[in-house]
Amino acid sequence: MNAASVRLTRWAVIIATVAALEIVPRAGLGDAITLIPLSRIVPEFFELLADGELTPHLLSTGGAFVLSFLLAGLTGVPLGYLLWRYEPLKRTLDPYLTTYYAIPIFAFYPLLLAIFGFNILPVVVISWAWAVVAVVLNTAIGFGEVPRVLIKVGQSMNLSRWQLLSRIFFPAAVPYVFTGLKLGMVYSLIGVIASEFVLSTQGLGYLVSYNYTNFRTAAMYSAMFLILFLAILLNWALNSIERRLYEHG
Amino acid sequence: MRLEVKEVRKTFSGKGQEVEALAGVDLAVAEGEFVSIVGPSGCGKSTLLEIVGGLIGPTGGEVLIEGEPINGPHPAVGLVFQQESAFPWRTVLGNVEFGLEMHGVAKGERRERSRALIELVGLKGFEDRYPGELSGGMRQRVAIARTLVMNPEVLLMDEPFGALDEQTRLILGDELLSIWSETKATALFITHSIEEATLLSDRVIVMSARPGTIKKVVTVDLERPRDSSVVGTPEFGNITGDVWKVLREESMKTLKGHV
Amino acid sequence: MADAAGQTARTPGGEPGKASAWQDPVRIAQLLFPLALLALWQVLAVVLGDFFVASPLVSLRALLEGVGEGWLGADAGVTLVALAYGYLLAVVLGVVIGFLLGLSRFAYAVFEPIVVALYALPKVALYPIFLFAFGLGIAAQAWFAMFFGVFPIIIFTMSGTRNVSEVMLKVGRSLRLSRLQLFRTIVFPAIRPSMVAGLRIGFGVTFLGVVLSQMFAARSGLGYVLVQSVSLHDMPRLYGLVLLLTVFAFAVNGAFLLWERRLTRNRPSEKGAF
């Protein structure tokens, strides 16, 4: 087994899947109204883009995504640090934090809508809530997993507390914190799209549900593909940054 | 610098039970002397080294350097650990100059001293590499250089070559001997390899099974400068045989305790 | 190798600290945490008023009324049926696909990144495709929930299968075990802990899928009632339902965790001695 043949096969699987999206509808293996070949969706996408119909939704989704991710990072990293710093706090909250993602947090979204009304705020809050715990958990784990021997090296060199923290704990925890931020980013996007899709008045998720309810199937598929494309791009970018980060480690 | 360990005891307590790790260890290392400690696993030799290094406090007794009792890590003492301890986020040069940087040594001077040390441990040309790009043996050289660059007068080493294969550790042992003969530091070296201990030391100390005490001291009267070619000589064999006789007994106790 | 006292300190003697478990402040804090949340909820209800926050008691009463009026039983029933079907599909497909992909080193290398990437995509927006395929109703919800839950189950089963120890397999082969014996005595026990972890996470995600799908273009189910309560601004019902869903998810997850712990109880912990 070599890496090249693995990669080749993987691409073959992906290309075959994309090809199936074209061939299956064309072969008439389904309802002609709901199954549309890829070659008709892509031009529709560019039409929507040229019309400017996509732009406000793209901006709305992008804004909510950036906002919720920034909030998750700015609150999650310090909270994760505090959790590590105060061991009893961490041990108290541990069972609840590990159960957090088993709870359908999106059930809180309608609640937030009822409180804040139909605007960007409930979307940002629910996406933040979905993302922040991943950041907190990974940050706390990162500080906790700093190898004892590195701490001993610092102590044997008589480092001050601040030097120990800034020169040993922080850099050693970076890969974990980054993993947390990466998950936070992915979760933020999922949160934004999900809440827009379920109930809202703008954004790419909303565009899918709007076009679905108005029987604009080609436009609906193009919004779907745009979402998937952006998510895949984001994942790919984060993974390549992560690989670089671990290169030295 | 002279190093004395007096009646050092250590008891670990946690979760309602106590474990006695060291039961009164007495030891004196003369200035410029190289002493090794061997002992069965779990005998508390690493604990002893960490007490001498000031990382943990003893339950009883004291450690003196030049006749002064220590209280925390002493500036003239350098430590090398068994586990991977090169910082993965710093280059070789960044690792070696770490201590100097932390203690405010000016950039020009710390560069110069670090480069000299990197050359001494045979890593010239690797200054800008990261530890992840080096072999295990090279990473341990980085850790040794990082300690030596501080010019320690007492060098404490806790199985620094423990994670390496036999050939590599003999070769690194040779290198350590030649570096040590230049620095003239007082050295305390922990290992579980009898050969390594004999090759390096003026005296080999055998510790007992837990709770650790000193069981026997074997003087190594092989000529210096020496290198690993002495390993095959009958004199070498006699000394390692002496050490093994005591160590075997203690190791059996440990094994029986575990089974 | 570990020259530390911690290694054997754990083994001798009885079970230390068992009697003092109730005096452990962390344990007490853990038990008090839900009460603290409840108290916070009550305080918020008083401070912000019932337009924004319905108090715990009022919310609970709304749920009890729901039981009396019958809608809660009916909608919770719809949700549970969709969940049961969706989870069953996710478990069967996830375990089978995960096991097959984990058997071959090549298949694992090819598909692992694809499955992980699929897990991380915002799949909610694909729900209309399920509605096209299965119509409005429980079938679409169940298949969609399966689509959510199947990926963690595949991932965990796959990596569990991949990590079956080569040495143990060799031991089995040298004892000339049959294929079935090999599977029953070596492969399955090795996979089980990570598979159960996959089943636990998969359950949470499947449940999320059911609730989300019922929030969109549905006529019944707890997700539907949630969304309906927004337009009615029925705060007691909203808070009550959120509480119900949270407690249910928490309880099921807890049961899974207990199962997991029983399976891994006798294995050496991952953490080495210090």
Describe the structure.
The complex is a heterotrimer of chains A (249), B (259) and C (274). Helix content of chain A is 82%, strand content 0%. Chain A has ten helices and no strands. The longest helix of chain A is centred in the last third of the chain and has 38 residues, at 161-198. The relative contact order of chain A is 0.12. Chain B has a six-stranded mixed sheet with strand order 6-7-8-3-9-10, with helices on both faces. Chain B is globular. The radius of gyration of chain C is 24 Å and the shape is globular. The chains are: A mainly alpha (249), B alpha/beta (259), C mainly alpha (274). At the A-C interface, helix 1, helix 4, helix 5, helix 8 and helix 9 of A face helix 2, helix 5, helix 6, helix 9 and helix 10 of C.
Task: Sum up the structure in keywords.
heterotrimer; B: 259 residues; alpha/beta; six-stranded mixed beta sheet; four-stranded antiparallel beta sheet; 10 strands; C: 274 residues; mainly alpha; 11 helices; disordered N terminus; disordered C terminus
What is the H/E string of chain A?
HHHHHHHHHH
Instruction: Report mean pLDDT of chain C, rounded to a whole number.
Output: 86
- Poorly predicted runs of chain A: none
Structural class of chain C: mainly alpha
Overall shape of chain C: it is globular
**Helix fraction of chain C by DSSP (H/I, runs of at least 4):** over 70%
Distance between the termini of chain C: 11 Å
Structural class of chain A: mainly alpha
Q: Largest interface, and how many residues on either side?
A: A-C, 54 and 57 residues
**Assembly annotation:** heterotrimer
Uncertain stretches of chain C: 1-19, 270-274
Evaluate the radius of gyration of chain A: 22 Å
Detail the topology: elements first, then pairings:
The complex is a heterotrimer of chains A (249), B (259) and C (274).
Chain A: H1 3-26, H2 38-51, H3 55-85, H4 87-99, H5 108-116, H6 120-144, H7 148-156, H8 161-198, H9 204-213, H10 217-247
Helix pairs in contact in A: 2-10, 3-6, 3-8, 3-9, 5-6, 6-8, 7-8, 8-9, 8-10, 9-10
Chain B: E1 3-14, E2 17-29, E3 34-38, H1 45-52, E4 60-65, E5 68-69, E6 77-80, H2 92-96, H3 98-102, H4 107-120, H5 136-148, E7 154-158, H6 166-183, E8 186-190, H7 194-200, E9 203-207, E10 214-219, H8 234-258
Parallel strand pairs in B: 3-8, 3-9, 6-7, 7-8
Antiparallel strand pairs in B: 1-2, 1-4, 4-5, 9-10
Helix pairs in contact in B: 4-5, 7-8
Chain C: H1 6-9, H2 25-48, H3 56-69, H4 71-103, H5 105-119, H6 127-134, H7 138-162, H8 166-174, H9 179-215, H10 222-232, H11 235-264
Helix pairs in contact in C: 3-11, 4-5, 4-7, 4-9, 4-10, 5-7, 6-7, 7-9, 9-10, 9-11, 10-11
